[in-house]
């Protein structure tokens, strides 16, 4: 029974040191980081001729099943739909359907039955969206424990859905000290498992380029990957929300309120969320971990005692050795 008791003690020690301390980091006070960032979009310096792009109507390559539309080389100022400051998101337009509308003839906007009539529709793609670059200037902080850090002071990387690091192409930057992170849209799509914007949208015959999609880019801050809590790093990961599309209708009035153009924008809704796990050494947390270990020692002692006194064939002998009967005789 002594061997069983020592086995339990060794198991508890391995559990405390191997799992609680080494694996689960139960010697630190941890928190999920919060943060914010500044994002901007930049068009590539060199654009691809529309004749080489299979989604443009002037494509001169082999026939494909893609729906083709005219391609218009808008820059980042047209492509990026401004988001609210602090929204941690951006909308990158991939397709615009332009509708020219006039008020009904002999009609006034002050009349209840007056409405706009669509005169014409024109759909266009914005080419080379995959080569547009996203600049991210981010920071993190925690309240308890108290800590804060700038992203450009940390090392980082971007990983795919399999957890493996994605190699960067020329012009991309991630985790370089004193430099902002710069990622191509194609790299973010790859991290989310999207092979091409021309693949079918979720349960739809139209492409992701036509319908749009919602991407969540996670900025994972952590210092829990090594025993050096002073080494804070981050990595980008991305997920695509299946079945979620995004569109925005932008109304442009020209000379008067009687005439207007409605831009029905579809594209990539990119939502950036800071997350992760930051921890700092905390004596109270260590104390709680070891006190719970002492509780396990008491439980193991009680289990061994029950086995020795009530289960094994030699239980009577163990009871005799454990329990000593005494009698008190008067002098």
Q: How far is the N terminus from the C terminus?
A: 40 Å
Give the class-level CATH name of the largest domain. Mainly Beta
Give the tally of structural domains.
Answer: 2
Low-confidence stretches: none
Number of helices: 6
Globally, the shape reads elongated
Proportion of β residues? 25-35%
> What CATH architecture label of the largest domain applies?
Sandwich
H/E element order: HEEHEEEEEEEHHEEEEHH
Helix content: 10-25%
What's the alpha carbon Rg, rounded to whole Å?
A: 32 Å
Main β-sheet, in a few words? 9 strands, mixed
| Helix/strand structural class | alpha+beta
Average pLDDT over all residues: 87
Can you give me a brief rundown of this structure?
One of its GO terms (cellular component) is contractile vacuolar membrane. This protein has 331 residues and is of the alpha+beta class. The chain has 6 helices and 13 strands.
What does this structure look like?
Belongs to the P2X receptor family. This protein is of the alpha+beta class and 331 residues long. The chain has two domains: 2-21 and 284-322; 30-281, atp-gated p2x4 ion channel fold, CATH 2.60.490. The protein is built from six helices and 13 strands. It has helices at residues 2-23, 76-79, 185-191, 208-211, 283-310, 315-322; strands spanning 28-31, 34-42, 80-81, 89-103, 116-125, 133-142, 147-150, 155-158, 181-184, 213-222, 233-240, 247-253, 259-281. The strands form two sheets. Strands 1, 3, 4, 5, 8, 10, 11, 12 and 13 form a nine-stranded mixed beta sheet that branches.
